[in-house]
Amino acid sequence: MMFPIENNDTFLLFFHGLDSSNETSKYTCITREPKYCQTVNYRENFAEIFEIYDALIREKMTQYPRVVLAGHSLGGWFANHFAHKYNLRALLIAPCIYPSEVLADRIPVVADMKLSFPTTNTEMVRVMVEVDDESLDVAVARRTLVDLPDRWEVDYFEGGNHRIARSKDIWYHLTHLCEDPIVWMDEATYHGED
Asked: What is the pTM (predicted TM-score) of this model?
């Protein structure tokens, strides 16, 4: 079995999706430390979310040599936005590509905001998309996620849906992004059995 060794040089900051929280399975499946997910309400005071996330990132950048961002859905858009702004590594899980268009009915204030999805970050970015996602326009994702920098990797998984439940794939990508050391050990050793 493979197990990550704690890596205190890299901090993982996770952004949950719309109407979700730090209890989302996309976050709770991550066993590495240190990590953090701030529960926010995107529907109320959307502009303030930028300030909350920006302050968190800047704080963690002063405390750790490396900060890696990850997010699901609208949280994936935020992870990409701030990864681009600060040139950070990121994992984007079923990211909302154009929130101004697809979320205007649920968060009216975003209709008047220019929320682009930059794809020029030269740091390592991993993207996970399931082709049967009922919320994400996969055709738009395929048109947007082209001509990417070499450090980007996009995985399209057959089947699935927007509640993407691929904890092993999330773990795999984050291990690489965070540069977490891996140790092999048998189950008895892991559980401290003789």
From this structure: 0.91
